[in-house]
Design a protein that fits this description.
Rhodanese-like_dom_sf, alpha/beta, five-stranded parallel beta sheet, GlpE_sulfurtransferase, 15% strand, Rhodanese-like_dom, globular, Rhodanese domain-containing protein, Oxidized Rhodanese, domain 1
Length: 106
């Protein structure tokens, strides 16, 4: 039986950095201005307040990131309820020490 209260798996920013060569689906749920000020290369911006409209065609795991890890946890729960396989990135961009890109698009 599906349990809405099951824990959302999480990884560290260092673990996510190791996965970048695999081109994972990274969903940045910060506001557009936060995203434009610096985001992980390849990350797609989909703000938390619009998370219920998120659609992805394939079934790959979605890595969800925000600034500190709080909004991404909320977004991950919402996406899990929609049936997505999700992983929260603990610590968010506050802990990201690798390169970032600025601007609208990844």
């Amino acid at each position: 039986m599906f349990n809405l209260f099951q824990a959302i798996p999480s990884i560290s920013t260092a673990e996510l950095a190791e996965k970048l060569k695999e081109k994972p689906m990274i969903l940045d749920v910060r506001t557009p201005s936060e995203y434009q000020s610096g985001h992980i290369p390849g990350a797609k911006n989909h703000p938390l307040d619009k998370i219920n409209s998120y659609r992805q065609k394939n079934a790959e795991t979605v890595y969800v990131i925000c600034q500190s890890g709080m909004r991404s946890k909320q977004a991950a729960r919402a996406l899990k309820k929609q049936g997505y396989e999700v992983v929260n990135v603990a610590g968010g961009m506050n802990r990201w020490t690798n390169s970032t890109r600025k601007g609208k698009y990844a």
